[in-house]
Design goal:
This protein is of the alpha/beta class. The chain has 2 domains: 2-30 and 197-280, no CATH class; 54-194 and 282-315, Vaccinia Virus protein VP39 (Rossmann fold), CATH 3.40.50. 39% of the residues lie in helices and 24% in strands. It is built from 9 helices and 13 strands. The chain has helices spanning 4-24, 38-48, 54-74, 89-97, 111-124, 166-180, 196-202, 209-225, 284-293, and strands spanning 79-83, 103-108, 129-130, 133-134, 152-156, 185-191, 234-241, 246-253, 257-261, 264-268, 273-280, 296-303, 309-316. Strands 1, 2, 3, 4, 5, 6, 12 and 13 form an 8-stranded mixed beta sheet that branches. Helix 2 packs antiparallel against helix 8 (209-225). The chain starts with a helix and ends in a 7-residue tail after the last strand. Bound molecules: S-adenosylmethionine (SAM). S-adenosylmethionine (SAM) is lined by residues 33, 36, 41, 44, 48, 56, 84-86, 90, 108-110, 136-138, 157-158, 160.
Length: 323
């Protein structure tokens, strides 16, 4: 495991490289993982409480209603590996239902926020071993050697999986299968396709919290990469991309302008956008097929009465091809 100072230096370099590459592309883009610095994590937590943002309350209700069945799927003595743990609010529901859970390993790219989450979970579950890992889950990383092979359960709530494109989703599901091992299980929250009158406001709320979350990325680039973006010259936009079955967030340039990042100058035409996040919406069969290709068998699909959201319960297929 890298020490914190080394990790932060590496993370700054990765951030800079992603920003320069993304702003140099023909269609400007920035990877959504960089939305989550301390301020971004705080703003995301405010988004989860908004009336328009149905995913959190819907998934929370599904977890509460089916927690006992999820505990059966996980089995006794489970080690819970949570990817993109954030504030870990939903985690408490699952941990509270599990039979004698052994360990909790929250993984997140936002290290300081992760420490706060780990401390809260330790207070709430004093007998549980809590071992946070600062890592980018779209890259290959290993779990601590001392973690027992039996009873590993991947937990990926929040429909964060929707932020990954098809290739990243396949690679992520394979990595989670490798982490969980041949007797492992997984619980994944997936947002479903639905009417745009519900989808679009969830990413463009009346209070403007999602806009602040999106624009915070430019503030973060200014703070951490010695850049000179004028965030008030960009506007938040949420739009539907049918081909990708995704709500996209963009930052729209309000005028002809330039921004310098670490000594490189980027030009923006009026109306030109920076694509900052995609949130893919699945149909249950499509997501199930992707999970199967990565070495998982679908055991349960728990959903809400309006079928807005689905929580998948998966079991590893014990085949050496997926180890
Ligand atoms: C949409 S929030 C979900 C938070 C929480 N799991 C929930 O259900 O409310 C996404 C979380 O994943 C983290 N994250 C996003 N991309 C990541 C990546 N590539 N690697 C690790 N963590 C990532 C963010 O820092 C954030 O905490």
């Amino acid at each position: 495991m890298l020490d914190t100072v080394h990790y932060k230096t590496r993370q700054r370099e990765a951030f800079r490289d992603d920003v320069v590459a993304g702003l140099s592309a023909a269609g400007k883009t920035l990877p959504s993982r960089w939305l989550y610095d301390d301020r971004g994590c705080e703003l995301f937590e405010r988004i989860t409480a908004l009336e328009e943002y149905y995913p959190t309350r819907t998934e929370t209700a599904i977890l509460r209603q089916h927690a006992a069945e999820m505990a059966e799927l996980c089995g006794p003595g489970a080690s819970l590996l949570e990817y993109g743990a954030g504030a870990g609010v939903k985690t408490e529901i699952l941990l509270g239902a599990l039979h004698s859970p052994r360990a909790y390993l929250p993984v997140d790219i936002a290290g300081d926020f992760l420490d706060l989450t780990a401390a809260r979970i330790r207070r709430r579950f004093p007998r549980l071993e809590v071992q946070p890992l600062v890592a980018d889950f779209t890259t290959d990383f290993d779990l601590p050697d001392e973690l027992p092979a039996a009873g590993r359960v991947g937990f990926f709530p929040g429909s964060t999986i929707g932020n990954l494109d098809a290739a990243e989703t396949a690679a992520f599901l394979r990595q989670m299968r490798r982490h969980a091992g041949r007797q492992g299980a997984a619980i994944i929250g997936v947002d479903l396709r639905k009417d745009l009158s519900i989808l679009l406001p969830a990413y463009d709320d009346l209070e403007g919290i999602t806009a602040e979350f999106n624009l915070n990325l430019l503030h973060r680039i200014n703070r951490e990469l010695d850049a000179d973006f004028a965030p008030d010259q960009f506007r938040h936009q949420a739009r539907w991309n049918e081909a990708e079955s995704a709500v996209e967030m963009h930052l729209v340039s309000q005028c002809a302008q330039t921004a310098a990042v670490d000594g490189q100058v980027f030009h923006f035409a009026p109306g030109e956008t920076i694509h900052t996040e995609s949130s893919r919406k699945y149909d249950p069969a499509g997501f199930g097929a992707a999970a199967q290709r990565a070495g998982w068998r679908v055991e349960h699909i728990w959903t809400d009465p309006a079928r807005r959201f689905a929580v998948f319960g998966l079991k590893a297929v014990p085949n050496r091809r997926f180890e």
